[in-house]
Each structure stands twice: as C-alpha cells, then as structure tokens.
Amino acid sequence: MKKDIHPKYVEFNATCSCGNVITTRSTVGKDLHLDVCSACHPFYTGKQKAAETGGRVDKFNKRFAAMGKK
User: Fold this and answer.
1) Is residue 8 part of a domain?
2) Which of 30, 32, 51, 67 is deepest in the core (most CB within 10 A)?
3) CB 20 within 8 A of CB 39
4) Which CATH number does the domain housing residue 2 bear?
5) Which domain holds residue 36?
6) Do the domain assignments include residue 57?
7) Measuring CA to CA, which residue among 43, 45, 23 is closest to residue 34?
8) Is 55 part of any domain?
C-alpha cells in the first residue's frame, strides 16, 4: 500500500441533544452533534405509540365485503 494517502482514522465524540455522548472512531475528524440517539429516541426507549389504523388489505375487504355476499 502507498503511504500517506489514507485519511486519519481518529476517535471523536458524537453528542446528542439530550446530553448523551457517544465516543467512536471515524475519518470525520471533528465532533458531531446529533438530534436523537438510542438513549432518547421513542423507538428505543419504549415510549413510541403504535397507531394501528388498519392496512390497505383491511380497507379493501371492508369496501368489497358486500359484493362477496351475493
């Protein structure tokens, strides 16, 4: 391999808006600011509300249920 052609692979901090700091390695070379992380995202914290409104198949079956009863 050629020397001095690859970017430096350094350790940096990714800081979330909730205050959580994640240390990782990358070629970015500067600290990163995140909007959400696994500590505050509703999917990972279990606070996500599932909105079950029915799918397209259910909507189709309801619409054409009367036609099948002939």
Assistant:
1) yes
2) 32
3) yes
4) 4.10.80.400
5) 1-48
6) no
7) 23
8) no
- Rounded to an integer, what distance in angstroms lies between the CA atom of residue 17 and that of residue 1? 40
Rounded to whole angstroms, how far apart are CA atoms 22 and 24?
A: 6
22 neighbors 13 (Cβ within 8 angstroms)? yes
Alpha helix stretches (DSSP H) within 1-70 = 42-45, 56-63
Q: Two tokens at 3?
A: 């020397």
pLDDT at 70: 59
The answer to whether 29 touches 6, Cβ cutoff 8 Å, is: no
Strand 10-16: give its sheet, edge to edge.
Answer: 21-26, 10-16, 32-34
pTM for this model (two decimals): 0.51
In a domain, 56, yes or no: no
pLDDT in tens, 3-58: 889 888 899 999 998 899 999 999 887 888 888 888 888 777 777 666 666 788 88
**CA dist., res. 35 & res. 19, Å (int):** 10
